[in-house]
Amino acid sequence: MLLKILVLYALLNIVYSASEHPILLIVSYDAFKYNFFDTKLVPNMERIRKNGTYSDYLINVFPTKTFPNHHSIATGLYPEVHGVIGNSYFDQDRSTLQKMGKDMFSYNKGVVPIWRLNEDSGKGRYSGSMMWPGAVFPYQGKNITYRQDFDSKIDWYKRIDTVITWLTDPYKPANLVMLYIEEPDTHAHALGPHSQTVLQLLRDLDNITLYLKEQLEKHKLADKANVIHLSDHGLVGVKPTNFINITQYMKNGTYNMADSSPVLQIYPKKGYQQKIYDSLKAGSQKNGHFKVYLKKDFPKQWHYKKSTRSPPILVMSDVGYAMDDLIESAPLYAKAYNFTLTNNSEFGVHGYETNVTEMRPFFMARGPKIKVGHKVAPFHTVDLFNLFTKILEIPHLPNNGSMGNIVEILTEKPASHTFGSILVVTAVGVLIAVLIVSAAASIALAIVKRQQTIATAAALNKRFPQTFVRNDAVEVQHLLEPEDA
Ligand SMILES: [Zn+2]
């Protein structure tokens, strides 16, 4: 009987095994606009939002396209640094149009995405990517342990089931998983963000969010896993009456073009740059609904100029307008989605500047390291990397984000932040507060240390010789610096 109980116990442990490291699951819903919550079609997501920490929206990176933003989420870097400057770009050295592929994600060999950093930060840390854009490729010459390339035929429930098997693998349990869902983006491009299909998709996304929560609970992961739900951008509806033919201003064969509305990258052939620019500029003044920029004039806030990949000329249509690519694809959408193309047909477009309200993504998080019932001010997509490293307890690398914007999300504030806040009260208050905080911290530390010692002392000693001490020193130093440093 005792043997039977022991065997059963062992089996249960295998079934419910999970990483001893902090667990982080990041779920991206492509083009889930910040105010889709106002539709009231996502009650389960709303519940998570209110029970965890959320911000009204995120400030994403330019262009507000899928691949640049997913890689900025994963690296804390602007597109001009990580080099994913659009959903496509033109390779000027090889004269080829580059789309999703290894080349797109290998511009800067120094880039270390969060999934690589996690695995490199200690033994027993395993990362997984369920279709996250760019995570299927090797970084620093290495692939992560679990990876599934994008495949729209694998349904969302199956994706979640697979993610759960990674998190509960008895031998290599993942402690970081990136999960990507391609909706509502795919259908919203073809049918517009206000279509009935997209509204139904919001309900479907709400249902899989509940399913994910239930599966985490079923596998005893709910109290261990920190789950961040977010998106890369929103979208805006554009009608055919607002399509602009900009290629009429350029002579065929004198240029190459990449990406799609509302930002078209123009690569003039040798000797044609000035002519093309002048012609587009004249067209822009005549039409009034698109702008033309030379690379040297790209606005600073785009963080888009420094990459050698950035195009010599960029054309951007006004909000609510699109260009030649949509003139071509609109009838194809009509055919594929079985509707009649009229001037009232609506298509979803994103890629505009980050200060365009409709481009805003959402953010919400829940888990043992996340504050409950809390709201934080909108922060930057590039800040997320610092949030991830903090949750995962791994060293953060230099990046374009700030730590100051995300400390409010976490249950445990770094010591220097707490100290900084206390400084504003009176001298007597300081003394009392410091005494209380010190006493509380000592007790908490003692309890935490005792629990850690009992549970994982042997494992931690093996995995992290001195790393924890060094990391804490780095964090404190960073927080003492100005946020813009
Ligand atoms: Zn997207």
Automatic annotation (TrEMBL):
Q: Does Protein biosynthesis appear among the keywords? A: no
**TM segment ranges:** 422-448
What are the protein's UniProt keywords? Membrane, Signal, Transmembrane, Transmembrane helix
Which sequence ranges form a coiled-coil region, renumbered to this chain? Answer: none
> Sorted alphabetically, which InterPro entries does this protein's record hold?
Alkaline_phosphatase_core_sf, Phosphodiest/P_Trfase
What GO terms are given for molecular function?
A: hydrolase activity
From the UniProt annotation, give the residues forming the signal peptide: 1-17
Question: Source organism's superkingdom?
Answer: Eukaryota
| Family matches, as PANTHER family | BIS(5'-ADENOSYL)-TRIPHOSPHATASE (PTHR10151:SF120), ECTONUCLEOTIDE PYROPHOSPHATASE/PHOSPHODIESTERASE (PTHR10151)
User: What is the protein named?
Assistant: Uncharacterized protein
Q: Which organism is it from?
A: Phyllotreta striolata
